[in-house]
Amino acid sequence: MTRRYWFPKHYADVVQRLRVTAGFGLLAAFLWFSDPSVTAMAVGLPVSLAGLALRAWAAGHLAKNEALAVAGPYALTRNPLYLGSLIVALGLAVAGASVFLTLLFVAVFVLVYYPVMELEEQHLRKLFPGYTEYADRVPLLLPVAGAKGPLGGFRWALWRRNEEYKALLGFLVGVAYLAWRAGLMRWPLVP
């Protein structure tokens, strides 16, 4: 069966090369447009933590280009890392008390990361013969109720090899920035 994709391959190829640049653009927007409050942080940061936990769970199941990941969160969605990233970003936008950031994060996800997911799917179909059957039963991004599959098999070695600790460090820096912007902390060298 031939899979129809939403975005033309040429567009997906271009945005795949620009996704790191888009990430820096999102960071700049986050730094500029965040106007956090204690309440906004209390609501948004737990959401981001849930996304970070999903990313960590996924990274501990992913042996990139070596084996088809079908266990853990990959039993529920084919793209738990992207879903986790989206949840982290939305939580940070809420914590930053910015509707603009929320809309921007969603737009970049749809226009940049969704086409990249489609490209990666094409690659996985070529790399793993069982991918088509897997894709037929597991949704692309949003899990559905009643999804079945093995949920165990997390390996710390994979989590480390996938460098998921970098997402945790980035999150902690973001939290520190929000806390500083909300007046909850001061830079050490500022009197």
Could you walk me through the main structural features you see in this protein, from its secondary elements to its overall organization?
The chain has 191 residues and is mostly helical. The protein has one domain. 64% of the residues lie in helices and 0% in strands. The protein is built from seven helices and no strands. It has helices at residues 9-33, 38-59, 80-95, 99-127, 131-137, 156-161, 165-181. Helix 2 runs antiparallel to helix 3 (80-95). It starts with 8 loop residues before the first helix and ends in a 10-residue tail after the last helix.
How would the blueprint of this fold be written?
Layout: H1 9-33, H2 38-59, H3 80-95, H4 99-127, H5 131-137, H6 156-161, H7 165-181
Summarize the structure.
The chain is mainly alpha-helical and 191 residues long.
Structural class: mainly alpha
Largest sheet: none
Principal-axis shape equals globular
Fraction in beta strands: under 5%
Low-confidence stretches: none
Q: What structural keywords apply?
A:
mainly alpha, 191 residues, 64% helix, single chain
